[in-house]
């Protein structure tokens, strides 16, 4: 299934039904009073988060959604039927923005979370409501309220425990294939991965979700290379695994490029716990590995873990450390 994390749709709630003008008409009852019923309420537009979806592709080709209008009132004090609600099912982690793409209307982060985005119009009043001691046979009723309409943006931000970041060709997709059952495309050229990929890492009876974010480049925080959309997917991750290619001529620069983009994007990304992995160590001598680890340690102040995603060597210690961090209580982790 194709991954789609942003789409614009039009939604409209149902109109309320009109009230009815009617009078009681029965044999031997010469002056039956007003008995017009009320109109039914229009249907609401409701968004529901469901775990069965991980993309917004369903809204790519159908972008207009309208709830049903309420039925008009009937005689004999019969109210019209209420219109059916229109329910849009979206993936967990979907944010709903107004047309300006700035105003946040809803944020669905839990399975089954429900938000009434637009309420349907109320039904009109029948003429039975307007009967009085002066006006015994009113011919007055009110129309139903008009439903609301809105253009909205649906933006999906993946909910994962660990976000996998790094420059293009750092070996992120290979790492994901090695430690999970996910099968992202792997090739020896930049931007092999064009969409975020999710995988479940299982360690004994425990597991956590790993998200492979497409390679970031310099200027990603300003939208270059769709960077802002990619960075949005790591906002909710508990910890970042920053992979750096050991075959790079300047690992320090590679590290600083990503850190700068996280800092510029803000949203608290630079303050997340970060684990640094020096990948592709199967291509390096022991001396080269130690030298590059020391360089990274000096600039980051963090412990550097060597690994080879291709052979799987060194991945187990990293996974155990990531599992330990994801199982920590929120108050014990950095903001």
Report a brief summary of the structure:
The protein is an alpha/beta fold and 335 residues long.
Topology:
Layout (H helix, E strand, L loop, with lengths): L5 E7 L32 E6 L13 E3 L19 E6 L2 E5 L5 E5 L5 E5 L30 E8 L5 E4 L6 H8 L17 E7 L2 E7 L14 H6 L6 E7 L5 H15 L7 E7 L6 H15 L3 E3 L8 H12 L9
Parallel strand pairs: 1-3, 2-4, 9-11, 9-12, 12-13, 13-14
Antiparallel strand pairs: 1-8, 2-7, 5-6, 5-8, 10-11
Describe the structure.
The chain is α/β, with parallel strands linked by helices. It folds into 2 domains: 1-156, Spo0b-associated Gtp-binding Protein, Chain: A (Distorted Sandwich), CATH 2.70.210.12; 162-332, Rossmann fold, CATH 3.40.50. Helices cover 17% and strands 24% of the residues. It has 5 helices and 14 strands. The protein has helices at residues 172-179, 227-232, 251-265, 286-300, 315-326; strands at 6-12, 45-50, 64-66, 86-91, 94-98, 104-108, 114-118, 149-156, 162-165, 197-203, 206-212, 239-245, 273-279, 304-306. It has a 6-stranded mixed β-sheet with strand order 10-11-9-12-13-14, sandwiched between helices. The protein has a 5-stranded mixed β-sheet with strand order 3-1-8-5-6, with no helix packed on it. Helix 3 links the parallel strand 12 (239-245) and strand 13. The radius of gyration is 29 Å and the shape is rod-shaped. The model is unreliable at 184-194 and 219-227 (pLDDT under 50).
């Amino acid at each position: 299934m194709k991954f789609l994390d942003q789409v614009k749709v039009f939604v409209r709630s149902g109109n309320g039904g009109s009230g009815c003008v009617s009078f009681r008409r029965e044999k031997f009852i010469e002056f039956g009073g007003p008995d017009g019923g009320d109109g039914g309420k229009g249907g609401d537009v409701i968004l529901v988060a469901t775990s069965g979806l991980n993309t917004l592709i369903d809204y790519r080709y159908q972008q207009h959604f309208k709830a049903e209008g309420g039925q008009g009132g009937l005689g004999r004090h019969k109210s019209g039927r209420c219109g059916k609600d229109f329910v849009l099912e979206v993936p967990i982690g979907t944010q709903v923005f107004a047309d300006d793409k700035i105003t946040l209307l809803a944020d669905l982060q839990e399975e089954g979370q429900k938000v009434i985005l637009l309420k349907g119009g109320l039904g009109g009043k029948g003429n039975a409501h307007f009967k009085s001691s002066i006006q015994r046979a009113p011919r007055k009723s009110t129309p139903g309220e008009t439903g609301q309409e809105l253009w909205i943006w649906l933006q999906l931000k993946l909910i994962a425990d660990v976000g996998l970041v790094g420059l293009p060709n750092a070996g992120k997709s290979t790492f994901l294939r090695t430690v999970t059952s996910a099968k992202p495309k792997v090739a020896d050229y930049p931007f092999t991965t064009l969409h975020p990929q999710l995988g479940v890492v299982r360690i004994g009876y425990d597991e956590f979700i790993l998200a492979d974010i497409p390679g970031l480049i310099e200027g990603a925080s300003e939208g270059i290379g769709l960077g802002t959309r990619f960075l949005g997917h790591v906002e909710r991750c508990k910890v970042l695994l920053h992979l750096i290619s050991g075959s790079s001529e300047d690992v320090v620069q590679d590290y600083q490029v990503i850190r700068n983009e996280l800092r510029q994007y803000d949203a608290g990304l630079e303050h997340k716990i970060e684990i640094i992995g020096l990948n592709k160590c199967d291509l390096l001598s022991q001396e080269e590995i130690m030298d590059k680890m020391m360089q990274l340690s000096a600039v980051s102040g963090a412990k550097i873990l060597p690994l080879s995603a291709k052979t799987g060597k060194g991945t187990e210690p990293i996974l155990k450390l990531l599992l330990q961090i994801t199982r920590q209580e929120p108050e014990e982790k950095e903001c």
